[in-house]
Amino acid sequence: MKRFPAHILIFSISLWFHNAEIMAQQNKIDKQIDDLLQRMTLEEKVGQMNQYNGFWDATGPAPQGGNAAVKYEHLKKGWVGAMLNVTGTEEVRKLQKLVVEESRLGIPLLFGYDVIHGYKTLAPIPLAEAASWDMEAIENSARIAAIEASSVGLNWTFAPMVDISRDPRWGRVMEGGGEDTYLGGQIAKARVKGFQGEDLSAPNTIAACAKHFAAYGFAEAGKEYNTVDIGTSTLFNTVLPTFKAAVDADVKSVMNGFNILNGIPVTGDAFLQREVLKEKWALQGLVVSDWASIAELVPHGFAEDMKHAAELGAKAGSDMEMESGSYVAHLVSNVKEGKVKESLIDDAVRRILRVKFELGLFDDPYKYCDSAREKEKLYHPDHKEAVLEMAKKSIVLLKNENNILPLAKNQGKIAVIGELADDTNSPLGSWRLGSDNNTAVSFLEGLKAYSQDFKYAPGPKVFNKDANFLQEVEVNATDTSGMEEAVALAKESDVVLMVLGEHGFQSGEARSRTNLNLPGLQLDLLKAVHEVNPNIVLIVMNGRPLTITWEAENVPAILETWQLGTQTGNAIAEVLFGDYNPSGKLPMTFPRSVGQIPIYYNHFNTGRPNLEPNVFWSHYSDEQNTPLFPFGYGLSYTQFEYSDLEIDSSDQSAIKVNVTVKNSGSVAGEEVVQLYIRDKVASVTRPVKELKGFKKILLEAGDSQKIAFTLTDAELGFFDHNYEFVVEPGMFEVMIGTNSQDVLRQSFEKR
Ligand code: NOJ
Fold this sequence. Notes:
The chain has 751 residues and is an alpha/beta fold.
């Protein structure tokens, strides 16, 4: 008889016990849901499907009259399943108590909030974190966000945003993982795991929400809330897999979106929500609408009025309505009139109750309302440390001519120029509703740890100081005061550190731009400084790829620093002076000009990829085809050499790919080894390259490492015209390299 080694036997037995425990827990929850559901009136069921925005100082007196009073009455009746934008242990406890003690069944509320890159202690914006390609760090960052958010009473975050986007004009790219589906899927999993942890019922884990289902990132012309019209191949191969990854990671909720997709508002799309998400993918969690997106079925021209909108939303599978109130007003009559089946309502309520049971809210509705924990966890020193690490990992070195970086610690005369250098607010980035203003370490503050005798000139004013989340940022493009002083300072200095970019609130929701240059007079300032002193390090702060084309041609060193959150200045200073060797890689292509958008690495070949010097090929007459910086690009203070790309396809179910990477420079460094494939001929044309694997490695100077990848059908297949996942035989090209452009190539045959 064959004997299993003891450790495998023990592992298998403990796995069996673990799974059995989960099953038993699920069965128990199913029974509890059944029991509760059959005691609920139709009104109470519909009430669970209703989410309200916070409306008055919950610790104050009960509101009299108006909308707030209506909400208050609904809470007492048990006609509210969740709140959003109510935070703080006191406020949350007060509302929870109202519902638990005064409503008939006392079903506790969910408290949702946009915890996008931290609550008080802020990590870099998600696009920046994506540049780290470090899944452990990203998971940890979400973990910290969950610890702080749960300490203020919250149990549900509206994150991660997993929308793939190829359009940097769209302001919400700052919130996502960039343009690539594979990378985005890995990030989706890491973030869901970070927020939800190992045990959702623990007091420091919260339910996550993958949004916006689906294709919101493909808004035409990058204009917010705009139409989306994409083919099924793009939908299935590019857009949906990041959501699938989140569902596979057991995400507890999914949010739909504001957009129409191929003519149907996604909020009212039964195919997407019922067939794909709930049936095919077996989502256990709930689907929440976006803010008033059910009411918006009316202006979309999809529903006649609010009652019709409620009917269509519920039928399509939007289980909970955020803020617009059409469900609580009309779903009961829709059911009574036979327009919506009660079984659909039951399904929605089951999903909502399940999340509440799993969070443990029925055991202790106040488990997130411990004010001592709130005090202890917010701005915890460990969190500051962790976001500093994350911030350093997020920085991308874009250019470093003549190794101008890192700066020597005994640099000569340093000039710092640019208003953003002295800003403690903008580097916090957008989507930071719970945070306190002016809590970032500014660039200047960070620099002080390395140099005491730098001089600073802000240059012309760029942004209004009181820029905030609710209003457009005002940009000065006329007043040149401060220019002369900055140029004079640059002239007398050895090196000029120019801190330029976008304001943190120029990206995020409703912040689309048609011009992706440095805002205001910043490029004029840079050019003027360059004339007197070209020894410039440009530190760019931004929430999206920018068209820094002149900059890339003329400035010797460029650091992409996004908006790095609380520890901004410290992180940048460490990189500038070489205490941290940058390893970030772009998660989104940087265009040369706005006219190239959408520009992305995994495009199709076209029938006329290159017929130069003939004019009839796919190109622009006035612009190059290549991007300014490609996807996956980023330098280090050391160099990496790639060699010996080998493929072993003898086992067709697990194709082995090896490559050797050598650190040929003089300092230790981290490298993201990227693997791309191309399916040469297929029934649905495949892109010229698709990322299918990556590994982040640390190599000491002079060291080499053999890196191994395995390609299975999961990486080689794609969704065909019938939405079926297929792997077609034929030749595949494998490309491995330091970015999506500089690669070694080999081929194999899939039989
Ligand atoms: C609208 C945004 O689209 C969504 O992402 C967010 O979660 C909700 N508002 C709630 O703030």
